[in-house]
Structure formats: structure tokens, C-alpha cells
Amino acid sequence: MKIPLLVCTLFLVFSCFDREKKTDHQIIEVKKTENAPIIDGKSNDHIWDKVKWHALDQNWLGAAYSHDDFSGRYKLAWNAKALYLLVEITDDVFYDSIADPFKRYWNDDCLEIFMDSDNSGGLHQHSNNAFAYHIALDHKVVDIGPDKLPLFLNDHMNIKSVRDEQRMIWEIALGVYPEDADATAALSPIALAKGSKLGFALAYCDNDGSPERENFIGSVFIPGADKNIAWIDSDVFGTLVLGD
User: Fold this and answer.
1) How far is the C-alpha of 206 from the C-alpha of 218, rounded, in Å?
2) Which stretch of DSSP H or E encloses residue 163?
């Protein structure tokens, strides 16, 4: 019985090494900021004048939509403590009908940040190999834990937003947590450093008043017919390179 057990063990070990490493794609170099932006939902920090907008325009789910229905864009910056996001969403209807934050939260309007701290790629649906942060309009942050149940992760980020009738500005300081971190434990985010690579994508769930979201709109192009896979597979995330 020892030989079959050894063979099985070796097979499992080498199977882990057989998985192809994530290929860097849709690469963005992120500018460092010495002075962290004040997280207040406003775009008047000096760093936001120095970095460019990126488009949020890839339709991952749903029929074609018009520019009048939805448009989105975002900016990025970093320092040792956090990744900073400024996100501008223009939407004809901001819809939030499901009171329970753990029930069908993806079918209300929400912002979603995908983060893979070591850019390793791979499956993450029921692990913290990567995070899929669903940020509701009231700023509640939810992801699925390893126990396959939703949990709050508000302590991973600081969020402020300013909204008028058809436009919403989100400003976020996102702590980057190590792969397979215990999301229920009191952990510190990793210290970011120049040259580090992060797996990253941004998305928005858009619902104008239906039982389910009409569109799921992302920041990265996903090939193939099924584009709604970022919540399962971090190989499709883009790559952020932390620069000067």
C-alpha cells in the first residue's frame, strides 16, 4: 500500500506545479503618491490631477447598453499603506432594493473590486486566493468566505462617496491583504513596494429597477463567450505594476 500512496502524493504535488502561471495582461503602471488622498469622495487631491483616467467599459453580462444608461471611469494611485481609487459612475438610475446585505447583493447597483495581492491568478470563489469585494451603495462590503457564506469585509478599506441624481464619485483606500489571509481575523495589510504586481479588475453591477441586474460592466477585456468569470477565476484580472 505504500507505493500507491507515494504515487498519489507525488501526483498531487506535481499537479500543483502543472497549473500555468497567470500571464500578465492589460497592464497599468500605477503612480506612487507621497501624500495619501483625503478619503472624502471628492477629486480635489493633488494626486488625482497627476494620473489619468481608465475606462470602465467592458460589458461582461447583459445586452448592449447606451452611454446615457451607464458610463464609468477610474483613477489609481498607491503608497506603502494602500491602493487608492477614484471612481466616477454616471448612471440614469441608482437602484438598491434588497435590504439584506447578504441576499443577492450582486443584483443591486454596486461597485466591485477584484484584488489578487501576489498576481498569481487561479481560482478564488471559495478561498481568499483573491478577493471580490462587492461594495453596496451604502458602503457595506461583502465577499464569499472559504465556508461558502458571505461575510463583511468593511475593515479592508476606507470608503467615501458623493452622489447626485445621476453621478456618483467613489474614493477608496484599499488595504491589500496576503493570499489566503483569514478574512475573519484581525490582520494588517501588506506593505506595498515599488515594482510589486497586483492582480486587479474593477466592475459595476447596474440595475435600473429589475429583479436582476441588467449589466455587469468591467475594466478588463475577457475573451470567450462567458465573460462573467472574474468572481471565480483571477487569471482574467489585469495587472497593476506599482511604479514611481
Assistant:
1) 11
2) strand 157-163
